[in-house]
Amino acid sequence: MNKTQIIKSLIPGALLSYEKYNILPSLTIAQAILETGWLQYIKGNNIFGIKWTNGCGYEVQELSTHEWINGVKTPMMCKFRKYDSLADSILDHGKLLSFTRYKSVITSKDYKEACQNVYNSGYCTDSEYPKKLISIIEQNKLYIYDAPRSEIAKNTTSKDIKHLQQCLNLMKIRATNNTTLFIDGFIGPLTVSAIKKLQDILNLSMYGIFGPEILSAVESIMERPLCSLKSNGYKTAIRYIQWRTGSSIDGIYGNETARLVKAYQQNNKLVADGIVGKNTWDRLLS
Asked: Which Pfam families does this UniProt record tie to the protein (predicted)?
């Protein structure tokens, strides 16, 4: 896997850990990358180098490692936990950081503070650990997954959230793990990832935040306006159509969009007239 694929493989687990333990996804992903050299070095599915302790509930494996002692990198043999899967390792990492010892990590205001606090709390003995984590986060823009949970759903109700989740499913806007959303009225990390994807498509601000702007945009699409070369408005709906048909996304219904709409219609056994009317909308949102 390349770096993009590695990050993508870690995102679902990191978001679940965020939802369950409130550990910033950027920290989880960066630690996984740093601890394993971009997943090159993993023994027993232990991504984070978590040590084995009596009663931890996991099998033990003894591995050679290095610890920094009085500023000197010292080789030694240590006991580490062995997991059934990488997903188990990610969740156990979140559970570990939820302990009182790491309280400052959970309450950190941003990824920089979290990286420093995870070191201060004794997670690692390498004094350069925070800088290395921050570098990985910033070089790969992992901070985009850290939407403040208290800010995610301003002035919205559970009914609003359920409606949004239903619409995102109909629009084929999938969560980061490429699955449909649960209609539960809760703004968790997976719903946030789908919101971010739609905001990218529609070029909306308030990244990852669910508020009136995203609701209005979704409604303008669900109204299924007639769109064609003669359309002067409906930019939001046109951007969505362009995304679904593989056209360049600019909100302008030009010749390229008309051509690709015709191709979409032909592939779906619809009248290929290049006009997005009722039947084409029904197919797009089925």
From this structure: Glucosaminidase (PF01832), PG_binding_1 (PF01471)
